[in-house]
Amino acid sequence: MTGPLTYRDATDEALAGWSGKGDRRAFDEIVTRHGPFALRVAARVIPDRLIAEDITQEAMLRAWSQIARFDPARAQFRTWLYRIIVNLCIDHRRRIQPGQLPEDYDAPDPSDSAEDKLATTERNKVLLAALHQLPARQRAAMTLVYDEGLSGAEAGRTLGLSAKAIERLLARARAFLRDTIQRQT
Amino acid sequence: MTINRLKALSDSYGADLLRWPADERRDAEALLRVSADAQAILASAAETDALFDAMSRAEHAALWTEAEEAAAVARLRAGVSGHIARDGVARGQRRRWPGLVSLNHGFAVVQANLGWLGLATSGGIAVAGGFLIGAISAPSGISEGVLSLLQTSPLHVLPF
């Protein structure tokens, strides 16, 4: 690295440029900076935390191997990186059985009574089952917009879709979840 | 903005206008101020949002706590840097094509051994040259077989 900037102060694009020249510490800063997002998205799209961690690591290694080809004139680095992560999660999700629940999905609130805990557990089971039945792209779109706060346009660039296509995915996901929950509760 | 467009946006983004496309927010707010139908559409979307909030809380309980997430990020950093250092995942190489990586490693092995190869070749040439000189300078009396290539007496004069 050259110049007065520290890795922590550097922009994503600068870190990507240094990483593209083989600077592993610059790439480590990228992993530190975007790892939490990557892990959260993976864990939401793939209902197994261990697999989600593996997929996230695979995505980061893929980003490292391709980072020299990143062109800041064509895309924001964040969008470029998120696309790799989200697409890998979607690809994996399509290969696994839908509807699998994580074993620790119902971590109870210690302040609840036994009856409350049971009711909460049952309700959570229904809610999470509905979430995990969503098709991978719809799940990814919901995660990006609702959980991570991306705009429809940003989510579209991340998934390689138009903003209109994201709107349709979100609308279908909301309708499916609403109908499923109302049917089961 | 039309009622239909407002309905489409609320079906996608819910009742929180902050999620809506920025360039359509102002028109939506203007419509909501004057249209009871628009307000009803948004109220319905808010009910669905409440379901999703409950869903999000349920899912959040299944995800990492703050400490668990920090530990997961630490594992991620260690795993990524370890793989890069150990496997030498070079920029521009595709990890899904291990054959290419192996080929590159093969070239590296050849390059690393070229020095030894050169040394062995030079040694071979020197030995062959020795046999040749022996053949040229051998006394005429001993001229048959491999033994004729051995120098039987000190070499006095080279022919070149």
Automatic annotation (TrEMBL), chain A:
The keyword Membrane does not apply. PANTHER family: RNA POLYMERASE ECF-TYPE SIGMA FACTO (PTHR43133), RNA POLYMERASE SIGMA FACTOR HI_1459-RELATED (PTHR43133:SF8). Keywords: DNA-binding, Sigma factor, Transcription, Transcription regulation. GO terms for molecular function: DNA binding; sigma factor activity. One of its GO terms (biological process) is DNA-templated transcription initiation. Residues 30-95 form the RNA polymerase sigma-70 region domain. This is RNA polymerase sigma factor. It comes from the Bacteria.
